[in-house]
Amino acid sequence: MTTTWVTGFLAVCLAGLHLAGRRLFEVGAVPRRAWLSAASGVSLAYVFVHLLPEVAHIAAELEESTGWLASVERNAWLMALVGLLAFYALQQQAERSKAAEQDRQTDDRVGWVHIGAYGLYNMVIGYLLLEQARLSDSSVWLFAAAMGVHFVVNDHGLREDHGRLYHDTGRYVLAAAVLVGWLASLVVVLPEVAVGLPLAFLAGSIVLTVVKEELPEERESRVGPLVLGAAGYAAILLVI
Does residue 135 register a pLDDT over 70? Predict the structure, then answer.
């Protein structure tokens, strides 16, 4: 298949994960929480073994051709920090809203802010599918697999925070956002200097999402599956 068809297929698969939602992991002997912890481990491995080194590689190539290393590298790590802080702020807003509502779900206005933010986030991921495919065939498949399990973790957290709003409407918005991002990549090609910045933002936000899902005691996280997921995917990344 051509690159366009491959990335389009992967975009549809990623969008479908949001639509599948609660039906994921309903069967099987492994508890849902263990699967989520393993998925978090995969996401972390991808960030630290592949995504951040890719940002550094882009910066190094730009140094050779333009001498821009200092500004690009600094801005890339700054974008990773921005991604982490932005999604931390969103999560804190959700927690305050749930406390004010005296409920396990947020106010709808807060819910829409979150859905909008994750919609932009998903558009970036959809866009980056084609960028990863331009690097190599293996890069796009590794990226899609890591983002797929990351979507599973995100979906779980968004359902817990926003309940009915997310199930009735939000998941469709996020699924559509992936496809919109992919379609945008067909007509808008970013210069190489600009590609590293959304990659870095994505890395920071993934780290925050995983920490948010795994650290609180009430999440009943599983250390073993998280470590196994991280170690297994890191091994795959290092071999490929």
Answer: yes
